[in-house]
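Field reference: sequence -> structure
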Amino acid sequence: MSNLPRGWRYVSIAKLATEVTVGFVGKMSDQYVEYGIPFLRSLNVQPSRISLANIKYVSEAFHSKIAKSTLLPGDVVIVRTGKPGTAAVVPNSLQESNCSDLVIVRCGQEITNKYLVSYLNSISESDAAIHFVGAAQQHFNVASVKRIKVSLPSLDEQHAIVEILDTADVAVRKNEALVKAKTEYKRALAEELLTGGRRFAEFADTGAWSERALGEFFRERSERFTGSGEPTVLSCSKIYGIIPQRERFTKQLASSNLSRYKWVEPGDLVLDPMLLWDASINFSRIQGVVSPAYFTFQFVGADALPDYFHHLLYTKKMRHLYVKISQGTNTRRKKAPASAFLQQKVLLPSLPEQQHIAECLSLMDEEIRLLQQQGALLKKQKQGLMQRLLTGEVRVPEFRDADDTKNTTVEAIHDKSDFAAAQMQGEG
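Structure field:
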C-alpha cells in the first residue's frame, strides 16, 4: 500500500460498514413477473450507475420471502460474478427493490456511499484479484469485500473528491449519449439511402434502381493456403469484423495444419455460414487465412463499389435474407449455402449515386469512430484521475497542506469542473 497524506488512513470495509451482506443466490428464472418489485442483477450494475435496461421484477410475496436481500436507496451494490468489483449506489428512484448475486454494503458514518463506490471502481484488476475467490469463475464474496482496505480522507474531502469525479463522469456520459444518438441516426439514414427511400437531390430524377443478383459482384474463392511460414489466422465476427484470431481469443483455435485453410486478400468478403443468420459477414482489410468452414468471395463488380456493399450488407432487408437462406431446425446450427447467398437480389443505383451514398455513410462512420476514441480516452483519463485522487497523490486544492511536498503540484483551482478538466488533461 502506498503512503497516504497526513490525516488519511487505511480502513477495512468491515469497519466502515454497518452491514455487509449478499443478495439472493439461487434459481430465479421461474420467479420473474411482468410487474412487481424491481430486481437488480449483475448486468444492471454499471460503474457508478444503476442501469434499468432489462430490469426484472419479482412478486411482493417472493420479495418478502427473501427480505434479507432487500435494497434501500443509498445502498452500495457490488458485482460478484462477471465483472467483479463493479459498484454503484442504489438511487432514490428505487424506493423498494431486491437483488440477486450482488454484495450489499451499508455505509457507516465515516464514509460516504459515493466515495466507496468510486474507490471500488478505481481498483485495478490486479489489485482486485487479491480478493477474488473461486477458481472456475472469479467472484467476490462477503468476506473478501470486508477485507478490502479503503484509503480514507475526511468526510469533507470525500465529498469534494466525489464532486470532481462526478464532473469527469458527466463528460463520459455526454460522449456515450452522443455516440448512441449518432449511431441510431446513421442506422436510420442508411436504411433510407440504401433502399431508395431517400435520395440526394442531384439523383432524384435519374430513374429507378436496377435489381441485381449478388453473384454478379462476388465470386467464391477456392484458393487454399499452400505457402510456408505462419500466415495470420483470421476470425469473422459481426461485432469486430474480420480480425486476427489472436486479438479475439486468448488461445490458438486454428489447427496446427493450415493446408486446408482458405486464403483471404484485402477487400475479400468473408462470411461464417453457421452464423450468417446473425450477420456474421464483413470485408477483410488484411491478408490471411480463415477456417475452411467459412465462405470467401472476391469482389468482381465492374459497375459497383465495394464501399457501397460494405454498408448495404448490414441493412434490415439483408439481415432478413440471411435468416431466410439459413437452413436447419436448430437456430444455432443453421447453415447458409454459398449458392443461396449469391442468388439473392439487391436494388442498385448508378455508380455515381452509389459513391455519393457510400461517402456519406462512411463519413458518419468515421465521425462515430472518432467519438468512440474520444470516449475511450475520457474513460482512461477518468480512471487515472480516480486513482490519483483516491490515494491522495493529487489533492483537492482546499485540502492540501502548505508543507505537503509529496503530492503532485496543482494550481489552486477552486472551480471543481476546471480542476477535473485540468487533471484529466494531465492524464492524457
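Note: Residues 186 and 364 are 7 Å apart (CA to CA).
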